[in-house]
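Contributing new records

If you add data, match the layout below exactly. Sequence lines come first and carry their own label; structure lines follow with theirs. Keep one chain per record. Anything else will be rejected by the validation script.
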Amino acid sequence: MENMRCMAKAAVAWVGFGLLLGMLGACAGPSSGTTAAPVGATTQDYDYIVGSGDVLSIIVWRNPELSLSVPVRPDGKLSTPLVEELVAQGKTTTQLARDVEKALSKLVRDPVVTIIVTRFVGPYSEQIRVVGEAAKPQALPYKQQMTVLDVMIAVGGLTDFADGNGASITRASEGGKRYSVRLKDLVKRGDISANMDMRPGDILIIPQGWF
């Protein structure tokens, strides 16, 4: 009889311990206001937009003296020998090439211009920002088909104090909607099912863990 009582007490203790673990797991989970990460969010039709800090190679066909490499200034404009000032930020390279052709046509007969981006920064509105407990928090230029795993590799992974599974992504393109993301499972455990696509302007927030 005494053995049965001991077994009953042990069972109650295990149930209580299980409930405690469940409560701790709920507290350590993603913060309220977030939803599960969506599947298939890649922007297939993405066109790169020139931003301040980009370096552009401007090639003018049959006019090598007009071909050069120029940075986009902090005000989003660029200057070339025959184009004193031209807005570059917010345009694709094709759109910008047509603008340069139009400006050069006043001095050069039928100019044909090609523009190649040789250093990518992109406009601030489309950069991926990583804040919190990343090894190297920073802003990254968005790339087509970029994923959370690509971002984590670029920032050097998580710190020892990160609550990786409590991380979230704030999506500017959806009015600031927040998605939960399991970074610990992805980075530490290699769970690829926790990977997700990024979108231009996403902010990845990695909180500090309790312990």
